[in-house]
Task: inverse folding
C-alpha cells in the first residue's frame, strides 16, 4: 500500500471491466472468467483481441479493471497470436496512463517470465496480479470469492488476505497460484 492510499479516498462506483484474450486458445477461459466478472460488475466487456495494438487501443476506453489472458515469453514479453510483443512493464505503464486500477494477467505463465518482463516495482499506482497456475476450476471459484468481497467494498489486499492468509507455512490448495502486487491497495472497486 502506498502512502497516498492512507489519505486519499480511492473509490470507484460502477467499475468498468475489460476481460480479454490475445489468442483464440484462451476462448473457453475468456468465457469462464467474464461470466464471473459480469456477476459483480455489470459494466464488463468481453473481447477476443487480435493484436497487442488492439489491446492498447481498448485501454483508451478507460477501464478500471483489465483482466487479460495471454502468453508471457521467456524474455518476459506478452505475445499475441501474430507474434507481436510488448513487455509487461510497457503494458503496466499503459494501464497506469489510462488510470486502470487492477491489471490481472490470468493465464498460466512461469514466475521467472513475469520477473523478467513485469517491472511492477517501479512505484506504479496499480494493483497487479500475475497468475502462475490457474488450477482448473479453482480459478473461477476463487475469482468469484474475491470479486464478491471487492464489489461490496473490501480493498483487494484485505479480501485477498482474508481468503488466502499470507503467513509462513500457510497452504491454500483450492486457490490458484498467483502473485499480488498492491500498488494501489486502498482502491475500492464497487459494483
Result:
Amino acid at each position: 500500500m502506498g502512502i497516498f492510499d492512507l489519505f486519499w479516498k480511492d473509490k470507484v462506483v460502477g467499475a468498468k471491466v475489460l476481460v480479454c484474450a490475445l489468442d483464440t486458445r484462451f476462448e473457453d477461459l475468456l468465457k469462464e472468467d467474464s461470466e464471473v466478472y459480469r456477476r459483480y460488475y455489470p459494466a464488463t466487456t468481453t473481447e477476443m483481441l487480435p493484436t497487442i495494438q488492439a489491446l492498447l487501443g481498448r485501454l483508451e476506453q478507460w477501464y478500471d479493471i483489465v483482466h487479460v489472458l495471454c502468453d508471457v515469453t521467456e524474455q518476459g514479453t506478452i505475445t499475441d497470436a501474430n507474434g507481436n510483443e510488448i513487455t509487461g512493464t510497457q503494458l503496466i505503464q499503459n494501464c497506469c496512463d489510462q488510470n486502470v486500477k487492477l491489471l490481472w494477467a490470468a493465464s498460466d505463465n512461469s514466475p521467472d517470465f513475469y520477473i523478467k518482463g513485469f517491472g511492477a516495482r517501479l512505484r506504479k499506482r496499480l494493483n497487479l496480479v500475475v497468475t502462475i497456475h490457474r488450477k482448473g476450476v479453482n480459478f473461477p471459484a476463487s475469482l468469484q470469492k474475491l470479486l464478491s468481497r471487492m464489489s461490496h467494498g473490501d480493498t483487494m489486499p484485505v479480501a485477498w488476505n482474508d481468503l488466502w492468509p499470507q503467513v509462513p507455512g500457510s497452504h491454500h490448495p483450492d486457490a490458484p497460484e498467483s502473485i499480488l502486487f498492491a500498488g494501489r491497495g486502498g482502491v475500492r472497486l464497487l459494483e
